[in-house]
Design goal:
Blueprint: E1 4-9, H1 16-28, E2 31-37, H2 48-58, E3 64-69, H3 73-79, E4 84-89, H4 92-108, E5 113-118, H5 128-136, H6 147-164
Parallel strand pairs: 1-2, 1-4, 2-3, 4-5
The chain binds 4'-phosphopantetheine.
Length: about 170
């Protein structure tokens, strides 16, 4: 039996924290689908295509596929014949939202097991939101995101700066 898992998220953008979870999940499962949600209702810095491109440029594990999904995560997991959904857990603050999501998903499809991997301590503070805030203010995020993401952030915010200047 090939054991597959999905790792869904917004990945706006992907960080070293996400990559840590991806590589650890790739060691646990035969195949991992890292899936960025195409959500037209949520405002994002990067388009889904940009996020996918950065994910593909950053993930090196051979048994990982990066792609886009729409709709319910459990239905996407079923389409990929995955037995589990992986999520990263940082601080206690993540727990409540993740518990709600896990409970909802369990009601929707109890066959998909939720697997939570504790973020490595060096990434415990790291989030896409922090990366975007620091990058938007000109801070250095090179230690927090892979090089293709850092380049994209610089490009994105230098263009915004350019527009603001007279
Ligand atoms: O990186 P994020 O924003 O914490 O990821 C959240 C995500 C995409 C995993 C979650 O919003 C999701 O699974 N959305 C798909 C819709 C769904 O399945 N909703 C029911 C579970 S709450």
């Amino acid at each position: 039996m090939v054991r597959k898992a999905i790792y869904p998220g917004s990945f706006d953008p992907i960080t070293f924290g996400h990559l840590d979870i991806i590589h650890r999940a790739a060691n646990l499962f035969d195949h991992v689908y890292v899936a960025v949600l195409h959500n037209t209702q949520k405002q994002a810095l990067f388009t889904v295509d940009e996020r996918l491109e950065m994910m593909k440029a950053s993930v090196t594990a051979e048994n990982v596929t990066c792609e886009v999904f729409e709709g319910l995560a459990v239905e996407y997991a079923q389409r990929r014949a995955a037995i589990a959904m992986v999520r990263g857990l940082r601080a206690v603050s993540d727990f409540e939202a993740e518990l709600k999501m896990a409970t909802a998903n369990r009601h929707l499809n109890a066959d998909i097991e939720m697997i939570y991997l504790m973020t490595s301590s060096e990434h415990s503070f790291l989030s896409s939101s922090i990366v975007k805030e620091v990058a938007s203010l000109g801070g250095n995020v090179d230690g927090w995101v892979p090089a293709p993401v850092s380049a994209r952030l610089k490009e994105k915010f230098s263009r915004k700066e350019g527009r603001k200047s007279p």
